[in-house]
Amino acid sequence: xxxxxxxxxxxxxxxxxxxxxxxxxxxxxxxxxxxxxxxxxxxxxxxxxxxxxxxxxxxxxxxxxxxxxxxxxxxxxxxxxxxxxxxxxxxxxxxxxxxxxxxxxxxxxxxxxxxxxxxxxxxxxxxxxxxxxxxxxxxxxxxxxxxxxxxxxxxxxxxxxxxxxxxxxxxxxxxxxxxxxxxxxxxxxxxxxxxxxxxxxxxxxxxxxxxxxxxxxxxxxxxxxxxxxxxxxxxxxxxxxxxxxxxxxxxxxxxxxxxxxxxxxxxxxxxxxxxxxxxxxxxxxxxxxxxxxxxxxxxxxxxxxxxxxxxxxxxxxxxxxxxxxxxxxxxxxxxxxxxxxxxxxxxxxxxxxxxxxxxxxxxxxxxxxxxxxxxxxxxxxxxxxxxxxxxxxxxxxxxxxxxxxxxxxxxxxxxxxxxxxxxxxxxxxxxxxxxxxxxxxxxxxxxxxxx
Length: 451
What we know:
- By secondary structure, the chain is mainly alpha-helical.
- The protein has one domain (8-440).
- 60% of the residues lie in helices and 3% in strands.
- The protein has helices at residues 8-33, 40-54, 102-118, 125-157, 162-174, 177-180, 188-206, 214-230, 235-248, 250-276, 309-317, 323-326, 331-342, 349-369, 387-399, 404-427, 437-440; strands at 78-81, 84-86, 89-91, 94-97.
- A two-stranded antiparallel sheet has the order 1-4. Strands 2-3 form a two-stranded antiparallel sheet.
- Helix 9 (235-248) runs antiparallel to helix 10 (250-276), helix 13 (331-342) crosses helix 14 and helix 14 packs antiparallel against helix 15 (387-399).
- The N and C termini lie far apart (62 Å).
């Protein structure tokens, strides 16, 4: 699957196949996204949408004497802000969803358009379900398609051979968690989408594949700033790409990139200051989770795990929720990173090393700062945004494979990844259902109360 001279007709043929794969993947997501089971991950955001459109407020606890927010009771991920801390507990404050505010704000804008066009109301359960269906197809499905398109554009930009491009596109579309989590509301897929847009501009500029015009630096800054606002830890990849840009184009990076980043950053800070009194995300303020009747004071099931960190590291990488066990095609990205460490002549070495360092930092963060594998979900969902990066890292490595046994091994990894991708879409937001959990056992055992 290496470089093969090809004419314009062959090039167009490959492009047509690639667009067909992307369109097919989007169609699958749209089909299964309608009527798909949603849970706290959706309702915690709808609670904010309801408050913004009904009360003009980010607070999901409605004023006394008014009917309650219909989605607050379903919201586990909520925090108390502007309260008073007493003995390690926050009292007397207001409740907000702990989800980052940018996605609920986008959902609010879409709901206003839907309501104007259809008259649907979030107070009606059936109509609220329809609203969720529309948002799932447009926001989640659209973000999924955005990820695929800019992933493909990046591969083309770096002149990756068409056969390798197709393998990687199929792997990302059908052989990762991306598809399964595009059929319900979450922040992971939109974050992956904006990360891919930022990566296209940032990597293209850093490798001098794109002309260094101001608009491209602004685009990198804008979409790069959105990444941590949707999924904070993923910002590590933007940081390393930005560092690469800074070494090559210091003036443009410090001016045009910051100009692009300013609007989304200012929006986030303004919202957080107005609502919480602090510019910091609530995820960085643990005390906000510790109000009197908070679930997070006494978490249950998978949220209450306290495994030794080496055990946790194993199970999130190669064990029951293992990213690389469920989706072994991602190992090609790790292999590319290791090759770049030992071989100074590897193509695009600095960019591959930057991606690998980002993966290491992300893994360290989740091992040291979390304990529940992402909660009730298939696999380790917090790594979804890193999966396109790992596959981009793998591209130069796969492009250099020439032997049949090498591609036979890649095919085996692809087959396992595709199986896990389909299983993920079928299971979604439920833990212990991975085929790896049938080998290692579930992360926790549900005990039935005796009657």
